[in-house]
Structure formats: C-alpha cells, structure tokens
Amino acid sequence: MADRGDFDGRDLPHISIDSWREPTTYKYPSQAQVRKPLREDYAAHAASLLGQLAAALPAIPAARDDIRLDIPGLGRGALVALETMPPTSDRAQAVRVPPALEFPGQGVVQLQTRRNPDRTEGAILFVPDASRGFLRGRIQSYGADAGNQRRPDLEKFEVIEQIRASAAESLFPEATDFAAPPRWWELWVRRPDAVADAVANRARARELDVHPQRLIFPDTIIVLVHASAARARELIAETLGAVAEVRPATATIRPFLERGDRGVGQGEFVDELLERIVPPTAAAPIVAVLDTGVSAGHPLIEPGLAGAYAYDAAWGADDHHPQGGHGTGMVGLVLYGDLESPLSDQRPVDLTHAAVSMKLLPPPGFDRHAPAHYGLVTQGAVAMVEIAHGATCGTYCLAATTDEFSPAGPSSWSGALDQIAGGASPGDEGDPPKRASERPKRLLLVATGNSVEGMAEQVLAPQPIEDPAQSWNALTIGGYTAKETVVPQDHPLQPLVAANSLSPFSLQSDMLPRDLTPIKPEVLFEAGNMLMDRSGFCAWNPSVSLLTTGAEVQTEPLTPFWATSAATAMAGNFVGRLEAALPGLWPETYRALTVQSADWPAPLRSLFIGRGEHWTTKPGLGGKAAKQELVRRVGYGVPDLERAVRSARNDLTLIAQAEIQPFAVSPTAGPPVYNEMHFYSLPWPRDALEALENEIVLLKVTLSYFMEPNLTGRAATRPDTYRSFGLRFMMKRPGENGAQFRARINAAQAAEGEKPEAEASHWLLGPKAMAAGSLHCDLWRGRAIELARHDQIAIVPRSGWWKTHVGQRRMEDKARYTLAISISARGHNVDLYTEVEARVAAHAAAISVGAGTGAS
Asked: For 668, which DSSP code?
C-alpha cells in the first residue's frame, strides 16, 4: 500500500465501478562490505572527521526561510563531499569510497561517487537535518576505545580523509556553464517512484518542462527536465537528497548515425542493444503499421515482429521506400520508441507489445492507388492482417495522407477509417448479425500530414490537416518537439522552434468549420524539429530528429526519422505499452486514456492558463471560440503513460465502460425517440475538496465512443446525418440539486442541445465544441470548493441516422462508450483518492447487501 503521506506518487489503480487494484512497493537491496583497518590513531581520525563535518554542514534555516521540499521518506537535509585517503603506493589500487558508508534507516545515503586522477575517490553524501546527531554519534563511536571488541563502523569511516561542504552544483558535470541557455537535463532521481514524482511536480511548479517519458533502473529513475543550468540548479537545491546526479541529456542522434572511421559502427550499436532485448510474449498486444513494408530481417525488428504482409502479394512485404525506408522506421518506433534512449544506456529493453507490418503502398513500377480508392485498400489491408492472425488487431498506425481532398468534411478514405474503427467494415457484422456494441472495434492512429520544408514564414503559417486525418473515430496525431540543438547564436543553423513547442511539421484544424468538424489533432507526440539557415530557409536535420531502424540493414541499420509519421509511430508505441499495462480494455478506452493523460508543455500551456481560477483572457484568446481554435492547433497536449495507467492521491481518474441504447421505437407509432440517458452520482471527494477551499483544481472529462458513418452528400454540413448516433456529457452545476439537474437535461434533449450557462463557466471549451466527432473532452478549472458540488454527470444521446433512417431498422441498436473523469490537485498535499475509494467500497457493500436480501 502506498504511503499515505505520498500524494503525488502514481502507484494507485484508476477507480471504476467494479474493481481496483492494490499496488506494491519496491524494496531496496542492501549490502555491507568490511575493509582491513588502516589507521593508527582512530581517536584522532574521528576527531578530525567530526571537526570537518561540523564545518561542512550549513546552519539549518528557519522554517520561513527554508526553500527545501520536504519529500516523504527523505526529509530536508544537506550535502557534504567526501574524499578518501591516497593509496599507500603507486601500485596500490584506488581507494574507494566504502559502499557501506550509508545509513539508509536514517536517510544518510551516497548520491554519487567519482574517481580522481590520483586514484582517490570522492562522494556526495546526503545528510538529513534530523540525522546530523546520529551521524556524529556514529563517528564518535568509531573513534572511541574499542578494547578487545571490533571497532564499530570501521568499514565506513577509516578510508575517509576529508569532509567538506557541498551544494547542488556538485551534482552537475564539472564543466557545466551555469550561464548557458536552456537545454534538456537528465535528473538521476532516487527510487522509489514517489521521489521522482515529487521532483517532477516541483519542476512543473517552477514552470519547467518535464518530458513525459522516463528511464527506469532498479534504483534510479531518470527524469528529463528542460531548463537552463542555473534554473536546474535551483530545482536541485529545492529537492536536495532526491537527485543523485545531473547530466546533460543527449541533444542529437547524430553520434549513432556515424559510421566507419567517423565513430563506432552502427552495427556495433545494434549488436550491443540486441543483447539487452527481451522479446514480447505470445499474448502481448499487437500494433499494426500500414505503410511501405518492413525489412523483416533487421536484427532489431525481428524480435518484435509478429508478421509482415502486403496488400498485393506481387509487391513483396519488404520496405521499398528509398533513403533508409519508411515502414521499417515506423515499425522500429512502434517497438522501441526513439532509439536514442535505449542506445544511450545499459538497461534491459522489454518489448511489451509486438508489431505487424502491412504494405499498403505499392513499390515503384506498380500503379499507385488513386486517392478515391485508398479507403477500400485500407479496409482490405486491415482484413488481411486479421485473417492472417485469426483475431482483431486492436491498434493500427497510418501515416499516409493526401491533400487532394478537403478535410472540411468526410471523404471516402476518412469514412472507411470510421467504419474500420466502429466495427462497420465488411465482415464485421457477423452471421447472424451482431448488434453494434458486439462488433469488433479498432483504434486507428492517423497522422495529421506534414508541413514541408521552405521559408520560415511559410512553414509556420497555419495549414489544414490532410485527408484522412479528419476521421471522426480515428485518434489524429499531431507533433510537438522536445528536440533542440544547443549551438552558439552565430551558428549558421538554428532550431526553427523552441523546445516543447508545436513541431513545425504538424498540421491543424483551426481553419476548418468548428461546428462541422472534429477537433484535430487530439494529441501530440514527438515529431522532431527543423533547422533554419540565415536566409530563413528551414528543413529537417538529423540533429533534431528521432532515431529508428533503417531499411538498409547491412549499410545503415539506424536512420533519422521525423515529422508526423514519427509522431504516429510514437503514438503506436504509447498505446502498445498502455494496452500491455492495462490489458482487456476496449479500444475506446485506450483512446480515452491517451487523451485523458495528455497535458500541454509549458510554452503551450501558458496560452491557456491565466491568473487565479480563470482560463486566459489574453487578447484574442478570451472567448471559448478562440480557445477552441487554439486546441485545434495543439490538441489536448502530450500524453503521459504513467498518468494514463495509474492515479495518484491528489490526481485520480474514474473510468466507466458501458453499453447504451440511444433510441427506441416510439410508443405512439411515431418516429423513433430517445431512449437511455445514463446518470452517475459520482463518488466525489467532497470533504477533501471543501478542505482545499479556494485552491485551484482541475477537472478533465473525456467521452470516447465509435459511431458508424453514413457517407452522403449532406455529411459535410450535417454531422447528425453522418453519425449513427451521438453522445454528450453534462455535469451538475454547483447550484443544482439532482432533480434540477435532470430537468435541465430533459430540456436540453427536447431542444437538441444545451443552452449556454448564464453563470460564469469554468469550462475551457463548453458544449459548442462537441458538435462533431466521437471523442469529446473538456477541462474545468476553478476553486476546489466549487468543484465539490459538481458531483453528478450524465451521458445523453444525440440524434443520428439510427434514429432518423427508419428504413435501416437500427433504432433499437446498442452502442458503447468510455467515460474518463480526472480530478487533479497536483502540487497540493491532499488525499482525494482515499475518500473516493471509501465511497466506492461502501457503495459496493451496499449493493452486495441488497442483493443478498433480495435472494433470501
């Protein structure tokens, strides 16, 4: 069970109506080592160490002046530097800092050690304020007359020659320039996970960007933070004891692309990584890539490849794309993510999911598909994959797009994707026909399309998404970038956009009709940056690209990869890992959790967040329409896998998966009528929220479902004729009781929509943003005491062709949806989770008692 004082640790299952899981905690191994005595006068040595320790430890600041974060399990403390005695001779081995010089029970631990040129060693020791007396006592015991007994702590102190003061900068490389501009830093944070969460949360509180991905080792979690060295130093000073070491993050994948005399051969990098790969299990999730084929014999592809196929057998399944391939790079990113990370460390690489390649695009010498036929080809390709595997593959990646059709309305290609996702492709109906909720569903990850190289003003100008990215049921993937090259200002090439900004490759939907088209893209993944020369011309560059597997296995097994193709493959990696962590959920749920976990990097978040409880009121961004335009450019942010998988005590997620029958036959022989509305009296943390009073908290709601498309000439201007049904969520307002809430919903149903709120709304987008699409997400930001009364939500149907097309005889069909609700009080020491958990348990017990009474 998680420590009740740990509010930020993501070690708790999301809460659903029927089940939740119990977490486990990691236990540190411990090991002691005894050394041969070397000192002649232990009393004098102990006295020297005590004097040095007293000089090294700073005065404990008054509580009002203390900037240090009190991290549960660590406490506040100081750093001291240790140096060992020199070797006794030139031939003697280096004198190591004893691994035993730690007192974990008191929080006294070594953060890092280093070897000096004279074969001595140094270490940075963290000493909690509360353990200073304990450490002094152990040194005193070490120096006392032991008589005939073994001298205590001999193995800890005898080789220590010096103790001196230390500070946060000692955790950085010696040559660090603290006046340098911002860059990415690796913070080597001590386990358990809660410590890393505390550091990351403090960084975010200081308006620093924290990369959503982490590298996890048995004792260390590497957290990537974007900051100047000076600001990173300030962060370390506030979290002393949590971070063991700070290193510059690898700024470019270029070293891995060098070959021959220019550096270590790519083959050697591949061979070394291959030794650390743990293949996926037979039951692992599968992510299918619809692209240009794959070099199946690539040593990094082979362990995770579950199949390679081609839409036309005459094409062959190999990757025909020139200049390093394309499908091979997509598959590599799906399996591993950006290879820069695993190639930069020595950790085992566990493949949590497998990949399948389906060659969707023909090689040279074969006729390319006319754009009007892409829908059929895509459906056929999906069917071939599933026939070969004998089951539905839950997730597909598609990076191909075309600009030959306007994204302002559905196309045959986007409509075909909606059918694939919604279980409406040929063969999905079944024999005898299944109801819609029972047909196979699929999660499609589709790229926005790309801005191409050119002059900066052209590249950065808003450009619309490309077909089929307007697909309602697909999760459309845009790009952001954390890639930057740290170069002098007079260098001829400079990054086009700052780190943590929208990638220059990414396209948007802000210029499309807001009342007719879905918000696209929904989420962003790493797509790389561009470099700009002095003339203003911009283009991709390996230094600001991702690293993946190349099709030229013998000559160039590693290759740079960029743009929204890379982002879409990274999304496939994310969903594969998510499904492996939370198996058995619906594709609609994985889509919901991906969006629910997303947040904007600081430069983008600053466009939304204003002062106090309100969203921004900057000129041009004050209204909800302007904010929706902004969301149509940057989506809901960058997904965070940990947040998608787990809740924290101050940041929890509620999940519901349900079937619903939206419509029914009229009892008066008239047209079909609305049928079900689902109400949830939520297990709300009312007491905890009221205790926070006027502190600002965040509520996020995501509703995800797959509709069946009806492609007609009216579809571009009538969303209700394109969709089989629609769903919306509505929340109880603070001043309403349950009866008033239901009455308002009934009135809204009669009017086919909700009237704008008369009171000030804390929602970012509001109900008008839900006109189209099958994923609806909105964020509420305001005072905790107000959110405490938003304790009911309803899922209500909206009209679609199931209701209006009586001849189709689908008015009694059933659909399904996923609802995700998150309450976030990140940065506050408040336990929202326990109160919700208790309410859910009490509700379950009451249901059990009622069932037992009824059975008797």
From this structure: T
pTM: 0.86
Which pLDDT value is given to residue 337?
95
Query: In this predicted structure, what is the pLDDT of residue 617?
Result: 65
In 482-562, which residue ranges form alpha helices assigned H by DSSP? none
Question: At 642, which amino acid appears?
Answer: E
Chain position carrying tokens 């320790």 = 53
**3-state secondary structure at position 657:** strand
Q: Which two tokens stand for residue 802?
A: 């199931």
Own/partner long-range contacts of 314-320 (Cβ < 8 Å, ≥24 apart)? 314/366, 315/359, 315/362, 315/363, 315/366, 316/359, 316/363, 317/293, 317/357, 317/359, 318/293, 318/294, 318/551, 319/292, 319/293, 319/294, 319/295, 319/551, 320/292, 320/293, 320/363, 320/364
Q: Which residues pair with 122 in a beta bridge?
A: 83, 114
d(CA 13, CA 390): 32
- How is residue 411 written in tokens? 């196309």
What long-range pairs does 489-493 form, CB within 8 A, spacing at least 24? 492/533, 492/534, 493/531, 493/532, 493/533, 493/541
Distance between CA atoms of 820 and 648, rounded to whole angstroms? 15
Burial class, 793, CB count within 10 angstroms (exposed 0-12 / middle 13-18 / buried 19+): buried
Half-sphere exposure of 469 (CA within 13 A, CB side): 33
Give the domains, in start order, of the chain with CATH numbers: 42-166 (no CATH), 172-248 (3.30.70.260), 254-598 (3.40.50.200), 651-851 (no CATH)
Give the residue with greater pLDDT, 327 vs 745. Answer: 327
Sequence-ordered strand ranges (E) for 643-725? 646-647, 651-660, 663-664, 673-674, 678-681, 696-705
Q: What is the pLDDT of residues 86-127, one digit of tens each?
A: 988 776 778 888 888 999 899 999 999 888 888 899 999 999
Q: How much is the mean pLDDT over the chain?
A: 87
- Residue 663 forms beta bridges with which residues? 674
Q: Within the chain, what is the greatest distance between any pair of CA atoms?
A: 105
Q: Could you read off the pLDDT of 154-189 as tens digits, one per residue?
A: 989 999 999 999 999 999 998 899 999 998 888 989
Tokens encoding 664: 């029914």
pLDDT band at 43, cuts 50/70/90? Answer: very high
Burial (0-12, 13-18, 19+ Cβ within 10 Å), 424: buried
